[in-house]
Amino acid sequence: MLEEKTRVFKNVLPKTKKHYIILIIAILILTSISGAALLLHKDKAPQEKPAPSVSIGCDRVLWKNTGIELAASTQNINKPLFEWTVDGKIAGRSQKLSQKFDMGEHRVVLNVSFNNMTLTANQSVIVVDSVNGISLRDSAASKNQWGFQTMYRDKTAGVKGVMISVDSLPAAEVNPCGSLSTKSLFAGEHTWRAQLQGSTIGSGTFNIKKVSEIKIARVDVAPSYSAGSTVNGKIVLKNMGSTTVTGFDIKTVAVNNNYAWMGDKAKREFSDQYNADIKPGETYDIPVRVAIPEKVSGIRPSGKYTITVTLIMNGQTIDTKAVNTEVK
Fold first, then answer.
1. Burial (Cβ within 10 Å: 0-12, 13-18, ≥19) of residue 193
2. Is 259 left (phi over 0), alpha (psi -120 to 50) or beta?
3. Half-sphere exposure of 300 (CA within 13 A, CB side)
């Protein structure tokens, strides 16, 4: 009977080794033992509601005659009332504050009132006309990225307008809190330079270590399908290292959860090898596409399934991801 069911799919799937990973899903769907729906329930512990909170971000450093827009971020607060003060004077009563500051240091305070409660967030805004005191701290951000953080007088602060260039790549601006991570880079030595208002505020070199690593970023499969529909999904891999990945194995195991107690009879497994040049930071898609028949030998192919994908390099398991789907 299995041979008969497999033969059905030989007419709709490409006859290439690369598509064996697709075949596993098809075979398992077709070999559902019956259309009975044995629902599995898992008791979930009640989740505590997060505590109310408010934030207006990091301390800022602005160049003279530069304005800024601050936005309040709230969590678990119903119908908040906002009150902004700048240097002790009321400056606004909405969620956002647009402000232009004079030279020097200013104190911004936001009070958020709700349900007879008040939460407070503070921020320092410093306006300068010189790069004196502005610097950068740099360190590894990942296995193939380098990170930068702006500083003012040796304290972390978001310095607006700082541009950082790495090697011959176009310069990029730090985010509002002064942080920046480079694009994914190859292993080796790299140079960087940071500028503000035409002046260099920092420069140097850094070294990305040689790391070969690839991960399963995600497995895209819909939560449920109907008999007679088509599975259009994909497995997405991402190179997390600093060298080009040229070969890896994929192992796929699909289990009918309704009949997992039957062991191998409810499980199908396939493995395949792939050769692809995936550079640092790049992704690689493996398509998952298969038509689900309405009936097989008079039985509707319904059931709940867990599909587990394992990534293997040099004989070692690197990453594993599992997804659940159901055929109704």
1. middle
2. alpha
3. 14
307 in the same domain as 222? yes
Same domain, yes or no: 222 and 312: yes
Q: How many domains does the chain have?
A: 2
Among residues 128, 162, 179, the one where a domain terminates is 128
pLDDT in tens, 286-328: 887 766 667 656 666 567 778 889 999 888 899 999 988 887 7
- The answer to whether the pTM exceeds 0.85 is no
Give the whole-angstrom CA distance, residue 10 versus residue 112. Answer: 64
Domain match, 313 and 242 both: yes
What are the backbone angles phi and psi of residue 185, rounded to the nearest 5°?
-120, 160
Residue in this structure with the two tokens 């940071």, named with its chain if needed: 194
Same domain, 251 and 289: yes
Quick one: which of 220, 270, 267, 278 has its CA closest to 250? 270
- What's the rounded Cα separation, in Å, for the pair 121 and 217? 36
Report the C-alpha gap between 71 and 80 in whole angstroms: 14
How far apart, in whole angstroms, are the C-alpha atoms of residue 41 and residue 232? 27
Considering the domain architecture, whether residues 113 and 218 belong to the same structural domain is answered as: no
